[in-house]
């Protein structure tokens, strides 16, 4: 294998296993924003919600952007609830969320 081939197999988004080649392909197909890359490749949609891969993708997009990048929203993990707590809330008629 050539060094160039190995570069293409680098995983950018570990949560969704999106490779550098997939991100570059999306950019080549016209995606010029984080939201576009997210929609096309599912990068930044895993457990970390883009905390680890967003900066890498921003760097890959930088040469194609004329203006400041628009950062997509992401939802941080919310505190966990036990099933017992949810069951009690449902029995009491409360909204568990």
> Helix/strand-derived class?
mainly alpha
CATH superfamily: BFD-like [2Fe-2S]-binding domain
State the end-to-end distance.
51 Å
* Strand line-up of the largest beta sheet: 1-2
Order of helices and strands: HEEHHHH
Low-confidence stretches: none
Rg from alpha-carbon coordinates: 18 Å
Task: Quickly give the CATH architecture.
Answer: Orthogonal Bundle
Strand content: 5-15%
Q: What does the largest sheet look like?
A: 2 strands, antiparallel
Shape: elongated
- The CATH topology annotation reads as Arc Repressor Mutant, subunit A
Number of domains: 1
Q: How would you describe this structure to a colleague?
A:
- The chain is mainly alpha-helical and 97 residues long.
- The chain has one domain (3-92): Orthogonal Bundle (Arc Repressor Mutant, subunit A).
- 42% of the residues lie in helices and 5% in strands.
- It is built from five helices and two strands; from the N terminus they run H-E-E-H-H-H-H.
- A two-stranded antiparallel sheet has the order 1-2.
- A hairpin with a 4-residue loop joins strand 1 and strand 2.
- Helix 2 (20-28) packs across helix 3 (34-41).
- The longest helix has 10 residues, at 83-92.
- The chain is elongated and about 60 Å long.
- The termini are far apart.
- The mean pLDDT is 80.
